């Protein structure tokens, strides 16, 4: 295991932003991770865990030891007539794992196709798309304590999953490194095509009785049509969460703006698409030098090349102010600022 100093993180974040790590280590096993965490040379050094970098905005250099988990492996640990349990290394590509499941006809994650990042980062953010969240399929999350190197397994309940949230982003933030995730998947998949875009795309594919492979391909098609490829244009996907507001706040807004979409969350809350709010506030396609708002999806802030994180952060703040001034709704970033 090599520890490098003044290491560029440009290729380790999907915005393609330059940021220097004081120190950088790629760990390929739990043993390597434990070794570096317990090494007295590094024990007092601040640590920063960086997976695929698909949900971070670097606004400065990282004065810490950046640890990049590269623990691989997809192992079937048990199965019964209806389900299969897969233990997956934190360093596996999320989309690569989804494709493994689709090819094996293991249902449950096909709606999460083409989401960038690693398996280890997925439960921290409780990633979700098209009616599915990772909490629907996680049985447990294996971790190592940054403080003392001890292993700890969190059950699904202990992960305290919420909308783009988990215990690892709140109460236990920066305390554990995810090393692996165990998923429970369906050998007799139930197809989830509740979203209109998915149904429309399947119809365009002339598919009337879709398999999980069909659903996956439809979602890949949708995502590629709406979202820029980070390899071409720097971005972190959806920059803001879709806000959930009380029904008593939504109803007057709906009267004032009849076109405003809203989706019930329980009996008292409504989820409003952040992309719609940003687009209606006039930001879709906005560009200022090297940064801007994507021309096809207002929810995506982009770095066209040469931009910096502070510019993107300032643009995000201006968008928040603009949407709040028009609708009284304060958007919350989904991306983590560093």
Automatic annotation (TrEMBL):
Subcellular location: Cytoplasm
Cofactor field: FAD
Keywords recorded for this protein, A-Z: Cell cycle, Cell division, Cell shape, Cell wall biogenesis/degradation, Cytoplasm, FAD, Flavoprotein, NADP, Oxidoreductase, Peptidoglycan synthesis
Catalytic EC class: oxidoreductase
Residue numbers annotated as active site: 164, 238, 334
EC numbers: 1.3.1.98
Record has Cell cycle as a keyword: yes
Stored PROSITE patterns: FAD_PCMH
Alphabetical list of Pfam families matching this protein: FAD_binding_4, MurB_C
Sequence similarity: Belongs to the MurB family.
Name of the molecule in the record: UDP-N-acetylenolpyruvoylglucosamine reductase
Organism: Dyadobacter psychrophilus
């Amino acid at each position: 295991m090599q520890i490098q100093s003044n290491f560029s993180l440009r290729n380790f974040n999907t915005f393609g932003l330059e940021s220097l790590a004081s120190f950088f280590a790629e760990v390929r096993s739990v043993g390597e991770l434990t070794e570096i965490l317990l090494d007295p040379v590094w024990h007092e050094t601040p640590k920063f865990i960086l997976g695929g970098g698909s949900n971070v905005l670097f606004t400065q250099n990282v004065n810490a030891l950046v640890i990049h988990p590269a623990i691989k492996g997809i192992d079937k640990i048990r199965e019964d007539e209806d389900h299969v349990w897969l233990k997956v290394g934190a360093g596996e590509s999320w989309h690569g794992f989804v494709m493994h499941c689709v090819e094996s006809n293991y249902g449950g994650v096909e709606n999460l196709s083409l989401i960038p990042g690693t398996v280890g980062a997925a439960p921290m953010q409780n990633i979700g798309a098209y009616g599915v969240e990772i909490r629907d399929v996680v049985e447990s999350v294996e971790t190592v304590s940054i403080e003392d190197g001890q292993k700890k397994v969190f059950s699904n309940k202990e992960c305290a999953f919420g909308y783009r949230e988990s215990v690892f982003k709140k109460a236990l933030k920066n305390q554990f490194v995810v090393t692996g995730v165990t998923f429970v998947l369906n050998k007799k998949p139930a197809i989830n095509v509740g979203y209109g875009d998915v149904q429309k795309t399947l119809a365009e594919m002339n598919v009337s009785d879709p398999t999980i492979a069909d659903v996956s391909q439809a979602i890949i098609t949708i995502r590629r049509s709406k979202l820029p490829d980070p390899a071409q244009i720097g971005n972190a996907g959806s920059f803001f969460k879709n806000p959930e507001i009380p029904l008593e706040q939504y109803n007057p807004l709906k009267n004032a703006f009849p076109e405003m979409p809203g989706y019930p969350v329980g009996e008292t809350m409504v989820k409003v698409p952040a992309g719609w709010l940003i687009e209606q506030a006039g930001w879709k396609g906005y560009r200022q030098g090297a940064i801007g708002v994507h021309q096809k999806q207002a929810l995506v802030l982009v770095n066209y090349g040469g931009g910096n994180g502070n510019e993107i952060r300032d643009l995000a703040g201006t968008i928040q102010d603009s949407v709040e001034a028009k609708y009284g709704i304060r958007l919350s970033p989904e991306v983590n600022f560093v």
